[in-house]
Amino acid sequence: MVSIAAEMKVKANSPFSCPGEGGEMPELDVQIITSGGLRIPAHSSVLASASPVLGSMIKRPQKHRISKQKIPILGVPPDAVSVFMQFLYSFECSEKQLEKYGIHLLALSHVYLVPLLKQRCTRALSEGLTIENVVDVLQLARLCDAPDLYLRCMKLLSNNFKAVEQTEGWKFLQNHDPSVELQILQFMDEAESRKKRIRRHRQEQGLYLQLSEAMDCLEHICTEGCTSVGPYDMDPSKNMDPCSKFSTCHGLQLLIKHFAACNKRVNGGCLRCKRMWQLLRLHSSICDYPDECRVPLCRQFKLKVQQDGRGADARWTLLVRKVVSAKTISCLTLPKQKRRENLNNPKSS
Ligand SMILES: [Zn+2]
Ligand SMILES: [Zn+2]
Ligand SMILES: [Zn+2]
After folding, report:
1. Where in this chain does the record put each BTB domain (predicted)?
2. What backbone phi and psi angles, to 5 degrees, belong to 34?
């Protein structure tokens, strides 16, 4: 006989576990039967209030009840059942107990509907996940409907698949549960393509950011001038230190110089001129103040769009929209101080 009953006598004096009236514990009227033949006496009122499933088992009417009602909890180690009973009485269990019987306690808490214990088991099992136990825990999480734990297992598994593949758990799974194996492989496949999608998106985002920065530099060169190129009415050599986006700005200045001097031009098939032409067109597409704008061809491009009357093609429109949103994002992610400076003096960048 286990000491739980004795323990309960002690607990009967505690204010937390006194379902009986006047602080007196009712009779031990149920017996839990475990796999090892271990019997744990308990109070039906306590079990019923902690677990609706046990409650419904106990309430079932019994005609000639002479002896104590027996409730079998089989298939898990007797000590795990003891810890389970302890939790039903006290809503407590130690980290050590969770570490040792977490898997069994998760199953018990799921079957007997004890959400608080289920929560604690899920957390403890998540923290104790290893390459060795991940396959077992995954299967249990699936059976016990513990989605958070399931996802944790899947992530660990797909990040360490080479090592997991070598474990006994994985080999057993392959032989006995091919549907779970398939699920895991599908998850890994989706995770991989999700990663690829994110990578591609980042690359694209980087490109739009570069374009948006080029747009800032173009405006800045044509308005206030930079180290070697400036507006026609301003001498660039007077200009001081390199600006804050000088790596982009410098490249753009070289491109502008080339554009001004090139003999082949766009129509002659010059790729650099073509690039400059596209940048000027892009600027015009996002420029909000064409009347005051000092960027060359800004108004001309706007006029041409109006005259054509049919707007730009879909790809160009998409490009413009992406550059505008990249610009917005980079403005929003600037440190506060910098943003304030930009707001006070929007032309300087
Ligand atoms: Zn500059
Ligand atoms: Zn050229
Ligand atoms: Zn403009």
Report:
1. 28-97
2. -110, 170
Closest ligand, as measured to the CA of 277: 2
Is residue 123 domain-shared with residue 229, that is, in the same domain?
Answer: no
Query: From ligand 3's centre to the CA of 216, what distance in Å?
Result: 11
Which CATH number is 337's domain given?
1.20.1020.10
Q: How many angstroms does the Cα of residue 228 sit away from the middle of ligand 1?
A: 9
- The model scores a pTM over 0.85: no
How do residues 255-310 score in pLDDT, each as one tens digit? 999 999 999 888 888 999 999 999 999 999 999 888 889 999 999 998 888 887 76
Of the bound ligands, which one is closest to the alpha carbon of residue 216?
1
Q: What is the pLDDT of residues 212-266, one digit of tens each?
A: 999 999 999 998 888 888 877 776 665 567 788 888 999 999 999 999 999 988 8
178 in any annotated domain: no
> 100 lies in which domain range?
1-128
**At residue 31, what are phi and psi to the nearest 5 degrees?**
-130, 130
Taking Cα atoms as reference points, which of 317, 294, 327, 299 lies closest to residue 214?
327
Q: Report the separation in Å between the CA atom of 286 and the middle of ligand 3, taken as the mean of its atom positions.
A: 8
User: How many distinct structural domains can be found in the chain?
Assistant: 2
Instruction: Tell whether 121 and 213 lie within a shared domain.
Output: no
Please tell me the distance between residue 269's alpha carbon and the centre of ligand 2 in angstroms.
Answer: 8
Query: Nearest to residue 260, comparing CAs of 246, 270, 249?
Result: 270
> Tokens 């994985």 appear where?
170
- β 69-73/39-42 pair status: unpaired
Domain ends where: 100, 128, 156?
A: 128
Could you tell me the CATH number of the domain that includes residue 1? 3.30.710.10
Distance 312 CA to ligand 1 centre (A): 30
CA of 254 to the centre of ligand 2 (A): 11
Query: Is residue 192 included in any domain, yes or no?
Result: no
Ligand 3 centre and the CA of 297: distance in Å? Answer: 8
Query: Mapping DSSP to helix (H, G, I), strand (E, B) and coil, where does residue 22 land?
Result: helix
DSSP state for residue 269 in the 8-state scheme? T
CA of 61 to the centre of ligand 1 (A): 88
Domain contains 60:
yes
- Of the three residues 65, 100, 128, the one that is the final residue of a domain is 128
Separation of CA 312 and ligand 3 centre (Å):
17
